[in-house]
Amino acid sequence: MIRRTQLYVPAISEKMIRKSVELNADSIIFDLEDAVPPEEKDTARKLLSKALKELDWGKKELCVRINPLQSPESFSDLLVLSREDKIDCLVVPKAENDLSFLYKATGKRIFPLIETAKGLTKIEDIIRSEGVDGVSYGIADLALSLGGDYKFYEGNLYIKTLIVSVARTYDVDPVDKVFFDLKDMEGFKRECEEAKRLGYVGKQVIHPSQISIANEVFSPSREEVEWASRVIEAYEKARKEGKGAIRLDDKLIDYVHYKLAKRIMEFGGE
């Protein structure tokens, strides 16, 4: 599964739901939480159910951000969504505990968001839950929970590194947070590039204009694909000859480089 881009789509907007069919995001997250006013939650659930019956998103991953499990609205979300076969994944905001029960109850993949102080301290319990295969974080909610300054925490490398480290430990996809300034496309690209260097596989996005940039950044470059192809070919040939390490372009290539090359080739095409 490729998650270079996860696009949030308000579940209350039929126009935006229909538009998402045409967009080149790898994953669509229909939002029943922040994007829907309290008095319109039921309307949004009905609208989303109707759209799921009528529309075809092809190979896109379809997710729904439910309301926090601490909220009564989440039970209504789950009652509706458990019957929707097209929904692949439940995005869980403000995750704070083991979520295995949710996977067992719905059979759908679980994608937690780390957005509270408790969630940050319980991150390992959350990510190793049964059914979890990806994770992201919300820096505004997290900063609020920590009593800190949003702008300061926005670029906090400790938090970014902690999340990607735990995600990689349990072999789940780390996806970087949303970038709110839609006018600052250069800043958005820089943040994508930084996230990729840290080990994130993709970016959560809030506007179609961000999709192409994130897709490009989180896709291997032509040079990376060419390097990976040569490494795989040379290493597999050497392994048949009983060699554990080889020299390629005057550089030592061993099993670690081989695994990196294999990972690049997994994402080498659209």
UniProtKB/TrEMBL annotation:
Entry-linked InterPro entries: Aldolase/citrate-lyase_domain, Citrate_lyase_beta/mcl1/mcl2, Pyrv/PenolPyrv_kinase-like_dom, Pyrv_kinase-like_dom_sf
Molecular function terms from GO: lyase activity; magnesium ion binding
Magnesium in keyword set: yes
Keywords: Lyase, Magnesium, Metal-binding
UniProt key word Transcription: no
Cofactor(s), names only, from the UniProt record: Mg(2+)
Gene Ontology biological process terms from the UniProt entry: oxaloacetate metabolic process
Highest taxon of source: Archaea
The HpcH/HpaI aldolase/citrate lyase domain, residue ranges: 4-208
Record-given protein name: CoA ester lyase
Origin species: Stygiolobus azoricus
